[in-house]
Amino acid sequence: MMQDYPKTLPPTARVGFTVMDKWLAYAPVKNNPEDASKVPKGNPYHSATSGEMAIYRANSLILVKAGVQVEGPVQQVFNGQEVEVWPRITWKPKWGLTFSEIKSKVRHSCSVSQRSTMVLKGRDIFLEDLSLDGALIINSIDGAEVKVGGSIQNKGWLLERIDYNDTSSPEELRIRGFKINKLEQLEQTYSEPGKFILKLQC
């Protein structure tokens, strides 16, 4: 066990630890939907549902700290678990491994609504004066610098409930308690090196 490791070190070893806020560093996924639904309200569910929502929350709060106006969550129930649903924001690790990297790629005034989905798949994607209310997916190769801004609004992606007992749905969806209905999105792919600007006015 990790907590036993210091006991194996000699008395002369220098041992330290780092403390982080729970939202940034701790979201185990170990309970099945049935067991998670029995957890008393206010206690962590530690399920696939809560684990996925924790990722969206962490990414949203990281962007808030970087200066983005991210609309707060709504409460929804999936598989009997009441969870906070933040904007569905994800990025590949190469977009930003450290906070300083992420902060350097967010410029001027940016905002993301609660119902939005944003997926960043590229190293050099910069958000500049972006107002997002819907779904946005950016794919770019290394060597393609993409500046994304303006007002982007569409029907977006909706979360639709699925019961974990409904065997007509795949298991990977049933354990989440929802599926994603992709109504409308803006997706752009940059497969050549260069500098590009995506700026829409709706």
UniProtKB/TrEMBL annotation:
Domain of life: Eukaryota
GO molecular function: UDP-N-acetylglucosamine diphosphorylase activity
Gene Ontology process terms (BP): UDP-N-acetylglucosamine biosynthetic process
Annotated Gene3D superfamilies: 2.160.10.30, Spore Coat Polysaccharide Biosynthesis Protein SpsA, Chain A (3.90.550.10)
Protein's UniProt name: Uncharacterized protein
Organism: Gossypium stocksii
UniProt lineage: Eukaryota, Viridiplantae, Streptophyta, Embryophyta, Tracheophyta
